[in-house]
Amino acid sequence: MSAKAQFLQKLQDNQPRTDTYASKGQADLATFCQRLGALQENTETWLAETGIRLITRHCALTEMLISNRAFTVPCFELHYENRVVKFTPVFLYGQGVTGCVDVTLAAGEPASALCRLFMRSAESQSWTYTPAHNPGGQRVAFDEEAFFTVIAPLLP
C-alpha cells in the first residue's frame, strides 16, 4: 500500500464512524468491501499505461460466522494476452486474520496459486500476504513492490 493510501486509510480509521451496523461481522464485511475497492484503485494506478486490462467483477462470499448466506463482494482480474491473474475473496474470518483474498494465475489448466492476501491480521492493520509456496510463513506487507512481485507470472 502506498504512503498516500496508508495515510488516507489511517485518516479514515481515525474519523468517527457514522455507519451503524447490527454486528461486528457486518461492519467487517463493509470494511472488507471498501478495502477491496481501494486495492483495485491502487492496482489501476500501478498498472496505468501498461496495456494490462483490469476487469472488475462481483463474487459471492459465504461467511458462516456472520450468517448462513452469501454476500456479494468486489473481485477483479488482470488480463494480459491469454493469461489472467485473479483476485478472489475467499473468507472474512480466519485464525488471526480478517479478509482473505486468493491470488491465482490462469494460464492454461490448472490455475496456480500465487499468494494469499489478508486485509487485516494480528501483526498489521494493512494488507499483508503470504506466498503460495510458503502458506504458513510470516505475513509481509503487500505494497506496490510486493504487488509486482506477485503478478510477475502474468507475463510469459
TrEMBL record:
It comes from the Bacteria. This is Uncharacterized protein. It comes from Lonsdalea quercina.
